[in-house]
Write a structure and sequence with these properties.
The chain has about 230 residues and is mainly beta. Helices cover about 10% and strands about 35% of the residues. The chain has one domain: Alpha-Beta Complex (hypothetical protein yedk fold), CATH 3.90.1680.
Length: about 230
């Protein structure tokens, strides 16, 4: 799964990197949890590539109320095309969720050690996602998103058995607007060679902590009760 991630790039940097036509304003965050509004790249009906803020936690358009979103932060890539909660969005409403890196927790016995995973180049990741638009009983519109996950690559395999789908630049446009059967092959582990990972402070487990030092490497834990 993917439960926390980092985005410290400026809107101007993302505009250039992802060739965006429109960018919402946002600030840097080093510990982004589900349930918050996150920058999401979509293709507009006019064919423009835009970045807006959407709530993390997918609420299908047919949902009776938005509480279901707390259970739909991630979608498994192996079943995303068939699961009722995700299949319509996978056909018509795919998106890119930019990130500098993401966190995952490695468990060994009583030890639960968080790791930070990113690109060696420092360039943003393009995580594959889905988005939805839900209309409430009073007509209010809630736009939400989720991250698609897949199996681990060689960097992740010793940390966790899942990782976000990460899209290559040459696949971005197809992911946003091609038919679903043409993008299914993009749901696979990203090449391990350009990626890196290191242990970080357990403070990342607390959503109130959102500081740059959260991604600094530390010595891994050797023993921990109730981590």
């Amino acid at each position: 799964m993917c439960g926390r991630y980092v985005l410290k790039q400026t809107p101007a940097k993302l505009k250039e990197h992802f060739d965006l036509d429109e960018v919402a304003d946002f600030g840097p965050h080093y510990n982004i949890p589900p349930g918050t509004d996150i920058p999401v790249i979509r293709q507009s009906p006019e064919g423009k590539r835009v970045l807006h803020l959407l709530r993390w936690g997918l609420v299908p358009h047919w949902a009776k109320d938005p509480s279901i979103g707390s259970k739909l932060n991630n979608a498994r890539g192996e079943t995303v095309a068939e699961k009722p909660s995700f299949r319509d969005a996978f056909k018509r409403r795919r998106c890119i969720i930019p990130a500098d890196g993401f966190y995952e927790w490695k468990t060994e016995g009583r030890v639960k050690q968080p790791y930070y995973i990113s690109l060696k180049s420092g360039e943003p990741l393009a995580m594959g996602g889905l988005w939805e638009s839900w209309r409430g009983p009073n007509g209010e519109i809630l736009r939400t998103s989720c991250i698609i996950t897949t199996g681990p690559n060689e960097v992740m395999t010793t940390i966790h058995d899942r990782m976000p789908v990460i899209l290559r630049p040459e696949d971005w446009q197809a992911w946003l607007n091609a038919p679903a059967d043409e993008v299914q092959s993009m749901i696979e582990p990203y090449d391990a060679e350009p990626m890196q990972a290191w242990p970080v402070s357990r403070r990342v487990s607390k959503t109130v902590d959102d500081n740059a030092d959260l991604i600094e490497p530390i010595e891994p834990l050797t023993d921990c009760l109730n981590c």
